[in-house]
Amino acid sequence: MVRRPAAAGLKGNGGSNAAHCPSEKRCRTESALVSAASLVEHWDDAIVCKTLDGVITGWNAGAERLYGYSAREVIGRKSVGITIPETELPKILARIGRGEQVDHYETTGVTKYGRRVDVSVTVSPIRDAAGSIVGSKEATILSAISSFSISFESTWSTRSR
């Protein structure tokens, strides 16, 4: 998710890398990876990838819009509470290291400019080709957690009167 065109690596031959791929299976795999990278890059939700010790390795355009940092500013650095509070990150990464997924973790992210945003984060393990867990992927959805809660509470209290 380092910023590069989705078609990076294509050699100007209509998307076919036949001259550069030793096997048809590898060509299909490379094509699928390019498609997946393009999808993640253009997804509206923030997608952040980290190592198991919290170093950011991927940051898509959705993360840039939500948090205000460019990929260049954050890749290679510890996340330091941007997407998940520093006090919670070690616990979540420990769960990821055990192969667990953390679904819909409601928290508050902090933008580059210090604004707090309510978000729902799903964190999943990233595995290498051998199946070993090498990092985490966070899908962050800017949520209306607070406004939904307030709306629900006011509706509930009005009905119970």
Number of strands: 5
Low-confidence stretches: 1-18, 144-160
| Shape label | globular
The arrangement of helices and strands along the chain is: HEEHHHEEEH
Radius of gyration: 19 Å
Strand order of the largest sheet: 2-1-5-4-3
Roughly how many Å apart are the termini? 52 Å
Specify the CATH class of the largest domain: Alpha Beta
| Fraction of helical residues | 25-40%
Subunit arrangement of the protein: single chain
Main beta-sheet annotation: 5 strands, antiparallel
Notes on the structure:
This protein has a five-stranded antiparallel β-sheet with strand order 2-1-5-4-3. The protein has two domains: 1-42; 44-159, Beta-Lactamase (2-Layer Sandwich). It has 161 residues and is an alpha+beta fold. Helix content is 34%, strand content 25%. A hairpin with a 4-residue loop joins strand 1 and strand 2. The protein is built from five helices and five strands, in the order H-E-E-H-H-H-E-E-E-H. The N and C termini lie far apart (52 Å).
Element layout with pairings:
Layout: H1 24-42, E1 46-51, E2 56-59, H2 61-67, H3 71-74, H4 89-97, E3 102-110, E4 116-127, E5 133-142, H5 145-159
Antiparallel strand pairs: 1-2, 1-5, 3-4, 4-5
